[in-house]
Amino acid sequence: MKSREAPSLELLGTTLKALRLEQKAAEDTRHELLERLGLQPLSLGVALRAGDQVSLLPSAEEMMASATPIEGIVAKSAGEYEPTVLVSIEGMPPAPVERAELAVWDFAF
């Protein structure tokens, strides 16, 4: 019975490794595109104050198709490790945005 399962487990391991490599490549590409725009991803460990300017990032596919980030303003201060940030875009009511979807100007922090 073990000999039948071994090839499928090897295939699964190979597939997971390929997915991780593709995810890493996508992250690297996203980071390069942000650098070209003068932005850096908003990482954990950075506290935000109400009034700080942030950029809402399009998806990697949208960035490849030359979509540009949308500027927003932090509506409520957010601690260093809060997973979401309240952001107002173009005067709209604030909405929670995942920290991973935000970037800041490279010189801001």
Strand content: 15-25%
Helix content: 25-40%
Shape: elongated
What distance separates the N and C termini? 57 Å
Classification by helices and strands? alpha+beta
Residue windows where pLDDT falls under 50 for at least 5 positions: none
**Cα-atom radius of gyration:** 19 Å
Oligomer: single chain
Characterize the largest beta sheet: strand count, sense, and whether it forms a barrel.
Answer: 6 strands, antiparallel
Got a strand count?
A: 6
The overall average pLDDT, rounded, is 80
Helix count?
A: 2
Written account of the structure:
- There is one protein chain.
- This protein has 109 residues and is of the alpha+beta class.
- The protein contains two helices and six strands; from the N terminus they run αββαββββ.
- The protein has helices spanning 2-36, 60-64; strands spanning 39-41, 53-56, 70-74, 84-88, 95-98, 102-105.
- The protein has a six-stranded antiparallel β-sheet.
- The mean pLDDT is 80.
